[in-house]
Amino acid sequence: MSTTLQAPPAPPTPLRRLGSAGVLLLTLAAVVVAAAVHVTQGTSSIGALDLIRLPFGDTDGEAARILLASRLPRLLAGITVGVALGVAGALLQAVSRNPMASPDTLAVSAGAYFAVAAAAAFGLTLPLFMSGLLALLGGLAAAALVMALAAGGRTGTTRLILAGSATALALHSLTNLLLILFEEETNGLFAWGSGSLVQSDLEAVTQLGPLILLAMAAAVLAGPRLDILSLGDDTATVLGVNVGRLRLVLTLLAVLLAAAAVTVAGPIGFVGLCAPVIVRLLPGVHRHRTTVPLAGLVGVLVVLGSDIGLRAVFGGQAGVDVPPGVVTSLFGAAVMVWLARRYRDAGPTRQPPIVRVAARSRAAFLTVVTACAVLLAGAVFLGMLGGDTWILGGDLVNWLNGRTGRGLTFVLDQRYPRVLAAVLAGAALAAAGTAVQAVCRNPLAEPGMLGVTAGAGVGAVSLLALAPLAGIWPMFAAAIAGALAASAAVYLLSWRGGLSSDRLVLIGVGVQAACTAVTVLIIVKADPWNTAMALTWLSGSTYGRVPAQLIPVALALALVLPLIVWLRRDLDLLSLDEDSPRVLGVPLEPVRLAALGGSVLLTATAVSAVGVVGFVGLIAPHAARALVGAGHARVLPVAVLLGALLVSLADTLGRTVIAPAQVPAGLVTALLGTPYFVWLLWRSRAQADG
User: What is the pTM assigned to this prediction?
Assistant: First the structure.
């Protein structure tokens, strides 16, 4: 007779002894304490003692006026938004069975924000209910697109986050375009785009608060079916749950809650990600009937805690100038990085499908290169002719020979640095994207997804805020420092007994979100009313470029392109899987570091030259593989030519389509790149399903 030894049960902790009801009450008490602290903060001299004296017949009405007109609306807005986003995040994570799903990572908030900004840009003054409905439609459209591209999240976390992040990037680009073109109509929406709890009355809370409570009640009632759904689709179907209908209804509820939150206070980032994650860490809380309302209460704590901390560190005026969404985004980025570090395997997304093509002959490759070079030369020629002042080809020839008048000479002397800046920056971003996709083994990755572009943007914007008249080389140094810091953080945080490509991408997205939040903080603290300059820079623009600004990009290309060519065979093996390079003797980590280091240098110099331009590092390498095959010896030159062609055409379009006004080149690349990216995701989804 054998005896099985069992480990003694772990001693119950105080929280475990409380049970789920006790944890719920304790969290509610924490919310009450946070609310009491929150209401004592503000820009006026009214403090806690003044508010305490109010119930005892204080004759001074100033404290009551401050409380009712400013502090109470702000507090109730924070509570409303926290509940809505916390519950929305809990529902989305339960429906997709993905701990990184949230209104932010699924682009719901970005879609709602774009819809509201579009209404403001076109001069539509809508009542609150209609604004909420518009935000709901925008959020639904974005969520439907992301969930369709990621097969409802069932194809893995990495694919879901990439689809959501790219969709959000495209929507933010469209929103920034509206903010630039309709600056007067959208005044104040830039800071509001990171969330704002500043409220002039209780209208938004009183109208949308009951709707949020009803949606939360419906979510709580669906708790038992969510418990069954967590066992798996097949098990839930056997137990009588209509899985498709349940997912649809709960997704609609989540989007409704997120849209209501955006209507009240703008898109406050990552609350819907953080709150459910914190709830899952609490012991003894497992049933969705408890986790859903708990996520709402924890969401309130995150929002109020961020607002309290913001004003405690920067003073009461910071509550007006700085969006609390900046703080929640930083906190959420940290949570996302923590989740990604625990992430081990992405299943089918570890080696995501790409468009396979047969190996091309050398003649076909040379034909493609020649065609791309001719198209690029045509784009440069068109860029020199086009703009707010169109010139003739003969004038361009005369300028090259030094025979033009003063007016045309001035125009062309100002234009050629812009054209060359677009060409060099596009080439640099395409080469960087080629290296990043090989290292990540993911054709949906790009330098922006690894936080490199956003880190370079933080460095450049910091210098612009501190020293607006800084020279070219300080700007380059600031951009390279920011890019290096971001990329080093991503690499070190991704290392966990080895480097997983999925973990690298997920942590990169988290660092990108943190860098974006820091950029917004710098802009609103430095000059909250002059956002057009910063928006133009962050959207990628060649305006005002001078020849000296081209030198860092040209030097980076001269250094890094030979390096990538030298590593071409190693990158071919690295893009296959983790084991083949090791078996064949490829020094894996040195190759990764060299490729990532080169991409960081290229991205930073491109950002210092033209600002933040997205999608080029994603589209150009993939299009090159579709044309000439997967070998990096052929992909690299074609990708460089295509990247230069894309940014050059985008810059020319931006300078001419609404001249004399201008659309930044980065926004045009986003508009051109989004449909291609959607098609790419959809095609790879079809291949994965097949």
Answer: 0.77
